[in-house]
Amino acid sequence: MSRNTGQTVLALVTGAAIGAGIGILFAPAKGSETRKKLKEGLDDTSHNLKDTIAATTDALKSKLSHVKKDAEGTYEDLLSNMSYKTEEVISFLESKLADLKSKNTKYQK
What we know:
Elements: H1 2-26, H2 31-108
């Protein structure tokens, strides 16, 4: 989904730059004025692209941070469940050991 968003933003910025460039080229103005307008348009597009990249980078960092926190939480839950299950197994084995000891004492008499 983020890949499609990035491609869409890039397509919009590129389309706006091309449209501005074509509009400036067909406008009746001196060459120096046209070059100045083209430079301003490229500068604006460059700034917009930098802002878009920065926003996308921040969004990705935020999502990765959330994923990392979720993974850590899942890991902690897994460890907790394993610890609980381990205690159950130990209790079960202790009860079986107690049963075996009691049976063994009956056979020893």
